[in-house]
Amino acid sequence: MQLYTFAYIVGIVELIIFIPVLVSGTKAAAFMQKFASNDLAIRSLGAIMTIIAVLVLLGNWSIGSDPAGLVRLVAWATLIKGVLASWYPDILRKNMSLLSNANMRLVIAVVGIVIGVLLVYAGGIV
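The structure assignment produced for this chain is given below.
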């Protein structure tokens, strides 16, 4: 998989997830809590994340300070998160409890949106 494709996919997914958290935090948090209660859904999402990250890292796995290296760093983080979600879904369930706090939910949403925008931008320059 090309690096720019990965950056676009992950960036758009980040925006799809975190814009609703910013706009309607309570409803989005309730949806995510319901999603997190389904073990098969978390494990399947983890498997998809792992596959996408491995496809990107097969080409070049080196991390650098250039935009391509930073996108590869995100790919490594996606790989680790995907493996953890596939094999230890309880870890992700515990992280979902952060969304119950309104202030923390706002911080998480803003950080997620910034990361999503930066990844979409990086997809255009790598």
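Interim note for the steering committee: The radius of gyration is 15 Å. Helices lie at 3-23, 25-36, 39-57, 67-87, 89-96, 102-125.
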